[in-house]
Every structure is written in C-alpha cells, then in structure tokens.
Amino acid sequence: MSTWRLPGAACLVFLAGATACGPLWGAAQPLRIACVYDSGRHAAANRDGENHWDIYLREIGDQLGARMEEVPPAALGNPEQLAQYATVLVGGLAADDLPAETLTHLERWIRGGGTLIALATQGLDALCGNRSAGLMRQPGDPFTCSATFALQPHRLTQDIHSILQPAQRLLIFSDVRQMTCDSSCALATLYDLDGRDTGYAAITGRQLDKGHVFYFAFGVPQTMWVLHQGRPVDQDYDGDGMLRRSDAVVIRPHSVQVLYADEILFLLGNMIGVQPHPLVHQLPPTGAGAIPDALFYWGGDDEASAAGIQLVASDFMRQQGLPYHINAMWRPDGTFGLSVADADKIRANGHEIAPHFDFMTGYASGAGFTREQVLAQAEAFREHFGTGWTCSVNHVTRWTGWAEPAKWMREAGGKADNSFVHAGSPPANPVNMFGFSFGTAFPFWFYDDWQGGNQKIDFLEEPFGAYECGYRDQTQTDFETLHAALDLAARHHLTMNMFHHPIYIAEYPACQQAIAEGLRYLQERQIRALHLGNDAVCHWWQARSESQLREVVLANDRLTFQTQCGYAEGMIVKVPLGTRTAVAAAIEGSPGVVRFEQETLFGQNWALVVVPCGQQVVTLSLE
Fold it and tell me: CA angle at residue 324 from 318 to 325, to 5 degrees?
C-alpha cells in the first residue's frame, strides 16, 4: 500500500495502482450520484425568513457538470436505496435529521466502495474519522467571512490553489465546525479571521476499505452561493457614492486574483472523481470538433456614443478573426447612439448586439432602480433595433437588491447579464486588471432569496474576467498582465470574459495592439483557444445545463454511458481516471474516429471525449 502523510495529521490511504478509483474497477458497477435534499428543512427555513443554503448544491452540481439525483434524508438509512448510488453528497443536516441506523448502513455502503461527501453534516463525525470540539459562529450576517482555510499538500489538492497568490487562503461564509482528525487526514487547515492556525481541520478525508468519506467543516453551498451572488446591494458598502455590483463583493480585503469558489469546485470534482463519474466539460468543442484549452468571450459597452465607434470596433475584431458583443446604451430621450444601419453592419460581421442599461444618467447616485425602468429600456431597445436580446450589461455596473434585477431582466426578455465586476471600487474603473471578485470565472445561474422560495432563476451571470487587459492608456501597453490572464485561463480551462469597450478598440492604438498580442501569444504558447461572444456563451451554458449523462456503467475495463446534448457542436465529456489511462473511445452507430484525448489535471488523469449533438451511447476502453 502507499500512503501520503501530512505533518500532525492522520494519513489518508489509497490502494497503490488503483489510486483513488481503487477496487471499483472490477465487476460491473452502476455509477450514479445522489444529492440529499430535505424539502421539509427548505420550507421551514423559508417560513422563518431565511435562505435554505443547501439548495445551492443544485448549482454546484451544474457547474461541475455532474448529473446528481436528489434523494430524501431517509435514503441515508436505506441500504437498498444507497446501493443504487456510487457517490452521495449531503449538506448541513442535524444529527436528529438522520434516520435510524444511518451510521451502520452508510459505513457498510462506504466499505463496499461508496463515496460520501458530507458538507457540515452533524452526526457523522466518527464515520468521517473526526472529533468535534465545538462551533465557530459566523459573525454578523450570512454574507460575512467567518474563517479562512488553506489546502494541504495531497494528491486530491494538487495544483488547485492559485499560483499567482499562493499565500492567499480561501474563504468561508458560514458557521464552522471545529474538527480534529482521529483516523482521517486533514486536506485543509482552518484559520481564524486574524490569520491564526486554529489547530482544526477545515476539510478531511478518510478511506474505509474500498470506499471514501470526505468532510467539509463548513457550509459549502452557502459559501459558494455568497461568493457567486455577493451580498444584497442595499447600501453603499464601498463608499464610492453609488449602488453598484462592487457593493456586493464579499471578499474584501483579500486578493481578487484567486478563484475562491472555483478552487472548492475543483476539489469537489476530484472527490467525486475518486470514481470514474463522467462529467460535462465546462468548455464546448470547437466548430471543427477540437478540444480547447480555454474559452475567451469578447464584448464591451458603447456608452451611447454616436460617433460610429461601434462599427469601427466591430470591423477591427472581424479583421482579427474574433467574435464581438456590443451592448448599446439607451439615452434618456429614448434614442441610441448606435444607428440601425451600423447595427445591421455589425451583425453582418457576425457580431452580437444587446442592451446597455443606463441606471446612472438622471438617477440619484445613491438610489437603485425599478422593474418598470428595466422593462422600459428593454422595450426601447426592441423598438429601435427590431430584435430581442440575450446578454445585457449595466452602465457602471449599477445594481439594486440581490436577485431582483435578474428577475426583471428575464421578464424583459433577456437571458444573461455581464455586470459582475472583476475588482471592487476603488478604483471606480479598474482597467488593465483581471480578477474574480465573485470567486469564479464560470457563468452561473441566479437563485432567488427566501421570499422567492430560493428557486433557480432562468437567468445567467457571465462575470467579468480580464477588463481592458494589456494596455495602460492610449499608447502604453502592458502585455505581462495580459499574458498572465491567458495563462491562468489555459491552466484551469476557464471561461474568461475579455471586456473591451468599443471606443478603446476604435481610438486607442494600444488597445488594438493588446488584442493582437493576445492572439499572437496564444499561438506561441500553443494554447488552443475557443473565442465566442457573450450571447454564444449563454447559449452554450444553457445547452450544457440541459444536457444529460445517463446509464453509466463500469464493467472491468469498459466505461459505458448515454448522453443527450442539444448544442450544435456537441459537448466534451471528461472522465476522471486516477492513474489509469484511456486507450480508445467509441460511439454506437458511428463508424468514424471518435476524438478523445487524455490530460493530467489536479493530480489525476482525465479522459476527454468529444460527443456529437443528440443522443449517443459512448464506450471508453481503459487500461
């Protein structure tokens, strides 16, 4: 056997040769993932005027590309129901919520090869190999940071943490259980808000015979939801005199260059990946069926300019072979700076147009905006350009409330927003920077608060990423910052928003040079880049969320699964393999060669298979 040891902690043992996937590589095994959902706790929380944070496991599963089936808490005490699943995720249940004989049945299921991922669940400490020493209460409101944690060296955490800000710890937004390791291994160490090592583990792992159990001492759904959507914009938290998305940022004073939510997502992917569960990749294949390293989506808003800069910018981007998305701003007199004739030419260039909502001009700086004002500006756009729209942006990223604007924009006909700024204020306009103030580079769906039943809103956020990156002013470039953003996107296979205003493309030579340099650098580094506009990203993410992975069965050296995808270019399915390798891929009824690759990422091998649109049956041969 081989073991990995951490100073001062118990060891987590994996069987040599099988790595994490271990004994499940034998006889036929159905591979299904379950997520425990307690409808009673959900309803009770909403009745009490509180969010049911665990509902965000649905969004976490969506971002992972995992197809999780919801089961009630009673399933944890039902051996027949447990036997239907290879992996189970459970949120913050109290010990009293667990059915009788849960520990007995769960332990037998884990020892037989199951994977349990418990997220601040009570009553499972002994099973997880931990002891509880108490509870650290979250100070203030649910949007206040309560503690930090640092990933520890381990195969499951390998290469996940930021190489740009390695000393920056990750953030927790929930109560935290104070856990010490008995027969488990500390995968992350817990720190208090003063930066002191508490002596407790934030995340643990344990192997039990053929199976694994992982434990998070904090509320992962709450933490990721708060990071993604931020706090409600109900006052001027950053002191810049305006209600903006920067008021929603919860990570201050920590670095904006760390993917706080995505790093938790990557770790969850590795935990689920101790078994070869197929997942839908976050990136789609290219039109030619190739597998990209990163997705860059290009857009910017026009500030209601009537000088024709929108078409100039569009023509430049077309010459570079790039897509582009222009948000056209409404003016208080009901007109737009962008003419209908130029808009038609921009669309003829293959580029996209959508509203640039203005809740700044004529509005009190400390005031919000209303549903009626959103609907009015959306209708003005529709009347002027004679078309609907997909992805809007708000002038100077104005916002009000929490999820209310998302509901209003969806009602107005929109499908996505691009206003979640990459860095907080000040500075008011943080140019030549890339960052992730909302913890993620990936799109995510809005969820309503308790008054709306914490329901998913059919409206997508496409957060800022690289904002006017690669130049300082009209003539000075800064390619180093641009290169760092592109390298990070390729390293973690990110969707990276490349935000460039049309006016700077049209009038700043340094901006044009930065865009051209980015393309040159991607080619030099042999980074396989997929370029899209904001609307196209929304269409992909919608199709990704609706795609299916079913009937997953592992039998000896063959993994078979069914797929359904509505995206024209198909999708990429990624399969965690531990230390094993894929030698062939086949699609039933398809005589041609199936494109697949293998890569090593986050400490293990992954098979990547390009699967066409429609319904398919895929077989992956392993060795």
Answer: 150
